[in-house]
Structures are given as structure tokens and as C-alpha cells.
Amino acid sequence: MELHVVIEGRKDLAQQLYQQLRDAIENGRLTAGTQLPPSRLLAAQLGISRKTVSDTYSLLTYESYLVGHTGRGTFVMARPVQAERKQSAQDLACAQSLARWQALPAPLQHPTLEGCLRYEFIGGATTRAQFPQEDWRRCLQHALRCMAQGGSLYSQPEGLPVLRHAIAGHAAFSRGVACSDQDIVVCNGAQQALDLIARVVLEPGSLVAMEDPGYTPARLLFSAQGAQVLGIAVDEQGLQVAQIPDGVRLIYVTPSHQFPLGMPMSPARRLALLERARELGAIVIEDDYDSEFRYEGRPTDSLQSLDSRGVVAYVGTFSKSMLPQLRLGYAVLPPAIREAVIKAKKLTDCHTPTLTQWALAKFINDGCLHKHIRRCHGVYAGRRERILQRLEGDLAPWLEAVPSNAGFHMAALFRVAVDVPLLLALAKKVEVGLYSLADFFHDSPQRPGLFIGFGAIETLDIDPALDRLRDLLQQLAPAA
Q1: 380 and 306 belong to one structural domain
Q2: In angstroms, what CA-CA distances link 49 with 4, 43, 154, 329?
Q3: What whole-number distance in Å separates Cα of residue 421 and Cα of residue 435?
Q4: What is the DSSP letter of 478?
Q5: DSSP secondary structure string, 151-207?
Q6: At 433, is the secondary structure helix, strand, or coil?
Q7: Could you give the CA distance from residue 224 to residue 199 in angstroms, rounded to a whole number?
């Protein structure tokens, strides 16, 4: 790799080289310990004499910018960086826009590996121990071979045909989604699918209706695109469709496993929602984020499978069934918005990396995904059952579980008054990661409770963690 130095003309060559190297060291572009090219190589690169380079190195060494080590080369010495003042956000014409973005909260932010607590109830995290590493490695090796055979061209923005075909079969088999390969757009996680749909549907000032409480990252995304987000209350049947006002252009719902409370949307509400969307000319986003994991009752149809008018955009993800780090998701799009979303995908990131697309297609087609889901289902079912036993047992004086039959998180509402922020802070001190439901409410009155994810915590860790929670609740609300 060549050192970036620009020599102009044939005059003051030594001065030009000296000034550029000195400036690069003073402003930190060449950091302490960086080895400079040998004088012969740098001279050949710049088209100047070797003596000019050697003299410049000697002068910079004399001024303590460089140091030479016999037999090893010439290196940059450590010295304070004299950085010029950079423009602050307040100096820029876009200061107001920057302030709005900087003020956004970061809900459901997963901790770093170093910051993880011993007992972690965060939502959206999967069980790493169950992931079939060998199967995935084999699929990645297959993907590398496919890429080697495919040349060096960019891929289709909507995704590889082989993966779209595999996803169409998976969505139809597991969730009854009515779709063909052409309806699928592969995305970098479900969040990108939401972003793409919102980009083509919304304009500044557009009205969006979504569940309240609901998925906060979706609300923040719609707001960031200039939309006015209206929180629609939920009850035991899900979204209260009658409260959706006129003028709404986009409706966001989680009908199979309401986020974060957990109840499914009733069949009557689903039909009412489809009819209301047709009246409004609105698009409905069905975020079906973790419904592969069902523990009780009969499976319910996806909202998309009931849609005969083409108003539902179904969004799925593999972050919950596989690993969040893979950032793989998809959207099943109605014909009216399909082409526009594909063009938006092309403009934003061209396409999702083909390495992971090839690998995922083989992972699905070889049956590895279904086997992995079945394996995780048994693990999650056991964790869920143990948490419910504790909530109905020694934790019952303080907490009541919200009925839920899917996913790998649940909600529990407080029966008595508890200082929730204090509880969370104290729990953190005893290595228990707890999360409040308050972060998911927008317009509706908050209902104090806990959001309990059981994907990341090991089964044997549940009882010790809940023992610590019980001890803290006895201190904060002993009358219970």
C-alpha cells in the first residue's frame, strides 16, 4: 500500500515532502508507530531522487517526528496531535435536523458482550447454544462456491431467485402466507423492510396508525421520515380498529403476537382491520416477527392470508429464528407497492449481501431451518413454562402474566405500586437485566409492568434470577 503524498512540479521537492509528512504526523493521519516506506521505495513512488527522501527523513528524525531503528526501518514517533477545531453541530445549517436525530432514544438496545449481565431478560435475543454452527458453516462454504461461479456483478435488489423461492415456500408452509417468488423482497432484517415500505408510502405529515403500546423502533422510524404517528389502544382482542381515524395512510400491527403484551388479534378484528384499510386506501404492515414459536391453542392464519384486496405487506425475519447478527429479513409485498419498494431497495443499498443469501437458501432448502426451529421450540417452551410457574407462584403477589401463546418474550403487569426504575437499577446491581413496559407506550396511559425475554437466558439461570427479583420486590413492596 502506497503512502499518500502528492508532489507537484519539479521545484522545492524536499520542502513539499517535508511539509506533507510533518502535517500528516501533527494532525494524526500518520499515527505513532506507523512505519514509513524505505527511502528507495518512496522515491520510486514519487518519481524523485532517493537522496531527497533520505534527507527529509533525517530532518524529521532530528526534529523528533521520526525515529530510525537499525535493520527495521523508520517509524513515526509519539507526539501530541494538533487537531484543528472541527465544525460543531450548532455551526451547521442542518443543526435543527441533527438535534432531532440525536434526541431519538435507543429502545431495545442490546448490551455489548462486555456489558452483558449474568442473568439477561432482554427481548429479541435468541439462544446461541442451540444454533447449528456446523450446518451454517457448510452452507457458507456452499455460498462461497456459488459466488465464485457467479462472476463479479452486482445482484438483483429484490434478492437471489433461489432465496426468494425458498422464502416463499417457508412462509407458505409455516404461516400460510399466500405468495409467489415475485412477491418477495429480501432485506437486511425486518427493520429495513419497514423502512423501505415507509419510504414509498409516506410523505412528510402523513398519518400512521400503530398499536399502543407497540414496537418503539417502528414508531421512531415512521416519525423520522416525517410522519405523524397515532397510537391506537389495544385490548384483549388486539388493536381497537374502530379508533383508526380518517386520513391514515399506513397501519402497523403485530397481529400474531402483539408487541409487547403478547395477545393475538381476534379473527373479527382482523377482518375489521382489512375492511378499514380498504376504506382508507391504506397499506397494512403485518410484522410477524416471532410467530414460528407457538405453545398453546390452534395456529392462527396470517393477516396476509386473509387479504383479498392487496393491502397487506407481510414482514418476516430470520433474526428471531436464527441469529440477530445475521440481519436477514424479507417482505411479501402487495402488487401495488412492489415495484416502488424494489426501486427504493436499489437506491438505498443496492442489494443484501449475496454470501448470506446463498447460505440461507441452502439452509432452508436442506431442512436445517425447520429442524432448528423445532429444537429451539422445545427449549423456549421449557423456559416459558418455568417463568409462568414462578409468576403464578411466589411472584404472584406482585406480578400477573399477560396471556400469550407465542414468541419468546412475555409481559407481566404489576398488581401493586412499585418504583419500576428503582427496581431495574437495583436488579442491575445484582446482575439481573430487567426491562420496563413503559418504553413501549406512546399515547395510551402507561401500565406498569415488565417485558420479559427468555431467548437469551439459559434455562438453569431462570430460577436464580427470579429469586433475586423476588427478594428485591420484597424490599420495595413488602406489603404485597
Answers
A1: no
A2: 17, 6, 44, 57
A3: 9
A4: T
A5: TT----TT--HHHHHHHHHHHHHHH-----GGGEEEESHHHHHHHHHHHHH--TT-E
A6: strand
A7: 11
Query: How big is the chain, counted in residues?
Result: 480
Taking the chain (480 residues) in consecutive chunks of 10 residues, what is each chunk's mean pLDDT?
Answer: 82 90 90 92 91 93 92 88 74 90 83 82 85 95 92 91 96 91 96 97 97 96 96 96 98 96 94 97 95 78 93 94 91 97 97 96 96 92 96 96 90 95 96 94 91 94 97 89
- CA–CA distances in Å: residue 450 to residues 38, 247, 296, 392, 432: 63, 34, 22, 15, 13
CATH of the domain at 360: 3.40.640.10
**pTM of the model as a whole:** 0.86
Range of the domain at 205: 131-367
Domain boundary among 337, 367, 397: 367
- Edge-first strand listing for the sheet containing 228-235: 184-187, 329-332, 312-317, 283-287, 248-253, 207-212, 228-235, 238-239
What's the structural domain count of the chain?
A: 3
- The H or E element that residue 356 is part of is helix 354-365
Beta strand pairing call for 228-235 and 238-239: antiparallel
For the four alpha carbons of 254, 258, 264 and 265, in that order, the dihedral sign comes to: negative
Q: Side chain identity at 220, as an amino acid letter?
A: L
Residue 373 neighbours by CB distance under 10 Å: 17
- Residues 209, 225 within the same domain: yes
